[in-house]
Amino acid sequence: MYKKIFSPGFSDTDALGHINNTVFPYWFENSRIEIFRIFSRELDLNNWPLILAKITIDFKHQCYYGVEVEVNSYIDKVGNSSFVVLQEVFQKNKLVAVGMSTMVHFDHKKNISIQIPLEIKKQLLIHQK
To answer: If you average pLDDT over residues 96-113, what whole number do you get?
Structure first.
């Protein structure tokens, strides 16, 4: 599991004073950085090996400005060329959102998905929930 803490900013709020639902994908993406490093240690954007194929978010409770959130990231499943990241957002120890992101190991030059190497699969599986 990877853990990352965010401090919701004033600009993250919506008209009702809650954290806007568009902020959660940002938190999720930034919390996947250590998973990205499994594929590209230096996060080399010129040779980026992944694409985001799908993201879903289930909102469980309201999330508020001024209170830190914790995002926990796990590997849910690993396939031949794709894997699913499970992410949970907590505020004051209360689960406020759950995200699932399907990532695909991808060759941008050939424009095709490619098999995840066995060594990388092993590293991903260490982070299963």
So the answer is: 97
pLDDT in tens, 8-50: 988 898 888 889 999 999 999 999 999 999 999 999 999 999 9
DSSP 51-110: EEEEEEEEE-S--BTTS-EEEEEEEEEE-SSEEEEEEEEEETTEEEEEEEEEEEEEETTT
Question: What is the dotted CATH code of the domain comprising 2-125?
Answer: 3.10.129.10
29 contacts: CB under 8 Å, gap ≥ 6: none
Inter-CA distances, 41 with 33, 38, 89, Å: 10, 6, 25
* CB 87, CB 102: distance < 8 Å: no
pTM of the full structure: 0.92
Q: Which residue has the tokens 């250590």?
A: 34
Distance, first Cα to last Cα, the chain? 7
Where along the chain do its domains lie? 2-125
How far, in Å, CA of 34 to CA of 88, rounded? Answer: 16
